[in-house]
Amino acid sequence: QMPVMNGQQAAMEIRDREKKTGKHIPIIALTAHSFKDDCEKCLESGMDEHVTKPIVIDELYKKIRLVLGAANFAAK
């Protein structure tokens, strides 16, 4: 629901650009949409994980650890 493109389009654009750089940018969707289909659409568009609002901080930390790897992120 962004003005120029939605989050799924942005993720696909980022993934397309990664093909040229060989790098990977972690993407975690943050959305108010919590239906299973919404999560699947995020993952299909190239996002690494999905978190719904309202944010449950422990769930967000869990997803960050999954995406970055536990060694790179220590929850406080």
How would you characterize the overall build of this protein?
- The chain is mostly helical.
- Helices cover 47% and strands 11% of the residues.
- The protein has a two-stranded parallel ribbon.
- Strand 1 (28-31), helix 2 (36-44) and strand 2 (49-52) form a beta-alpha-beta unit.
- The termini are far apart.
- The model has no long low-confidence stretch (mean pLDDT 87).
Write out key terms for the chains shown.
single chain; 76 residues; mainly alpha; 2 strands; globular
Short structural description:
With 76 residues, this protein is mostly helical. It is 47% helix and 11% strand.
Task: Report helical residue fraction.
Answer: 40-55%
Rg measurement, Å: 13 Å
Uncertain segments: none
Q: In DSSP terms, counting alpha (H) and pi (I) runs of 4 or more, how many helices?
A: 3
State the major sheet: 2 strands, parallel
Find the count of extended strands (DSSP E, 2+ residues): 2
What's the helix-strand series?
A: HEHEH
First-last Cα distance: 32 Å
Taking strands numbered 1, 2, ... along the chain, how are they ordered across the largest sheet?
1-2
Classification by helices and strands = mainly alpha
Gross geometry: globular
- Measured by DSSP, the beta-strand proportion falls in 5-15%
> Mean pLDDT, as a whole number?
87
